[in-house]
Design a protein that fits this description.
Two copies of one chain form a homodimer. The first copy, chain A, is α/β, with parallel strands linked by helices and about 230 residues long. The first copy, chain A, is built from ten helices and eleven strands. The first copy, chain A, has one domain: putative 2-phosphosulfolactate phosphatase (Alpha-Beta Complex), CATH 3.90.1560.10. In chain A, about 55% of the residues are buried.
Chain lengths: ~230, ~230
């Protein structure tokens, strides 16, 4: 099994034969952690949309709509991008529409993959189990921040790749493995100097970061199916 | 002092205000290690050129010309990209022309910087001393391999950044610092799974890799000045 890591959406075009590969979309702070939480809390699906206006159209049709730009909730939307806003009593059995700065864009970019898997530390082992089961070459696709490389997504790529002792890794993946090994004892501390930590902490959402650093507290995994993210 | 790392030439456009920054060009295997060695061995300058034909024009004028594409010496050139080919008796007091797959391109891309510095493990501490002396914001520019991220250039970026305890780092730099910390005890071993190691080893140049992983065996540093790389 070959594992390659795309550290920024700007490098996405380097993937060859994406239709034969499984793409794990990674936006740890916070889109893919939030999507994983929404599904765990009982939603029937998350509909990722790139454009704010499309999300507004869904809202007019009665959907619960969440959205964030630059880390803040979009005005008029039901929720933002914090996993804590999507409690079970709010999301159970509903389809939730979500648009975010980086993560939902990457899900759309990956839609030609053999399968798109939603990655988060919250369900790390479950993500690994699922891609093992699929038994295809893997792309770990880091959403980053506005096309810049970010630390938390890269460390998650390293965490997934660390689980494959016999895998064939590209250099980006080797870099992430080394970095994860140096940071895994205390992820929250490792992220404290990162740009996104500082961006979110300045908005007072440090608890979101602490939550998104938790490993294996959720035992399910989301995949993209017909434009919607559902449990595998 | 702010340090940012560009992990691939494809991400180079993300640098803002390059004219106010010092760019360290990093192509550990092998262009920037070889350039550092050539200057150490007594050459008066290295003239980096992007196009093979321009190098040929220099050769016709009587210059000693080195060049590599895909890791192999260009036909008709005096030398390739191996540091061992540029012995003191060959290069002393001469201007050497060099064209390589990745490194010389990045030197040209960086030419609008406040200063371009040539980075290698061979003179790591000297590179750090020199950029400290310049006291500007720093860009660690990894040449990679054909626009892909590579491990050895990223680890060198981490090695430089590790020397700045009080620096302000972007996330790419934090990633490289973590990775270097996990690898620094045995760089040669850390690189054994990397794509470039395998590419060069398959051509029988493992000794070049071992040499390029040596730290602080050269006590000088090259900088770009009027299109030529000379000792600072």
């Amino acid at each position: 099994m070959r594992i390659e890591t795309i550290l920024s959406p700007t490098l996405f075009h380097q993937i060859e034969n994406i239709d034969r590969k499984v793409v794990v979309v990674i936006d740890i702070l916070r889109a893919t952690s939030t999507i994983t939480t929404i599904l765990h809390n009982g939603a029937s699906a998350v509909i990722p949309v790139k454009e704010e206006q499309i999300a507004r159209d869904y809202k007019e049709k009665g959907y619960l709509v969440g959205g964030e730009r630059e880390g803040a909730t979009i005005e008029g939307f039901d929720c933002g991008n914090s996993p804590f806003q999507y409690k079970p009593d709010i999301v159970a059995n509903k389809e939730i529409v979500l648009t975010t700065t980086n993560g939902t864009k990457c899900i759309e970019m990956s839609s030609n993959a053999h399968q798109v898997v939603i990655g988060s530390f919250l369900n790390l082992d479950k993500v690994v189990d699922h891609i093992n089961y699929l038994n295809k070459d893997i792309v770990l696709f880091c959403a980053g921040w506005k096309n810049k490389v970010n630390l938390e997504d890269s460390l998650f790529a390293g965490a997934v790749a660390c689980s494959y002792t016999g895998g064939e890794f590209d250099d980006s993946t080797l870099l992430c493995i080394d970095a994860y090994r140096a940071s895994k004892k205390n992820l929250f501390k490792a992220l404290q100097n990162s740009s996104h930590f500082q961006r979110l902490a300045s908005k007072g959402v440090t608890q979101d970061i602490a939550y998104c650093c938790e490993r294996n507290v959720i035992n399910s995994v989301g995949i993209l199916k017909d434009g919607k993210i559902v449990l595998a």
